[in-house]
Amino acid sequence: MSKRPNPEMIDEDNPEWTDEQVRQAVRLDALPESLQLRLRGRPRAAVTKERITIRLSPDVLQAFRATGDGWQTRMDAALKDWLKSHSPA
After folding, report:
1. Which of 28, 39, 59, 64 could cross-link 71 (Cys pair, CB 3.0–4.6 Å)?
2. What's one Pfam family the UniProt record gives for this protein (predicted)?
3. Cα angle at 76 between 71 and 81, to 5 degrees?
4. Distance of alpha carbon 20 from the chain centroid
5. Whether the predicted pLDDT of 1 surpasses 60
6. Which residues constitute the domain of residue 71?
7. Residue 9: pLDDT above 80?
8. What is the DSSP string of 16-34?
């Protein structure tokens, strides 16, 4: 493989870096926070939930789904509330 750039592939608006530019380059995470790229989307949760498979009675599932969007979160809250007064063992 030739180290010489192909003249037909040279991009005038985006020329190849010189050796000096490569030496001066700084990692993005080393830049001040004001210059760092922001990731799109929702921030990562500090505590993540675990994905599982669970089989539920149709009437229980129907009742929670009928409450609209966020029914899984409400089901999680209901189970946490149950744990406050019951021992799972």
Report:
1. 64
2. BrnA_antitoxin
3. 120
4. 35
5. no
6. 50-89
7. no
8. PPPHHHHHH---GGGS-GG
CA separation (Å) from 17 to 10, 44, 62? 12, 35, 60
Residue that the structure tokens 């760092």 belong to: 36
Report pTM: 0.50
- Which residues does 70 contact at the CB level (< 8 Å), separation at least 6? none
Q: Name the one residue in this structure whose structure tokens are 């592939």.
A: 9
Q: 15-50 pLDDT, tens per residue? A: 888 999 999 998 888 888 888 777 788 888 888 889
63-83 pLDDT tens trace: 999 999 999 999 999 999 999
What gap in Å lies between CA 18 and CA 42, rounded to an integer?
Answer: 38
Question: What is the number of structural domains in the chain?
Answer: 1
- Which tokens go with 2? 């030739």
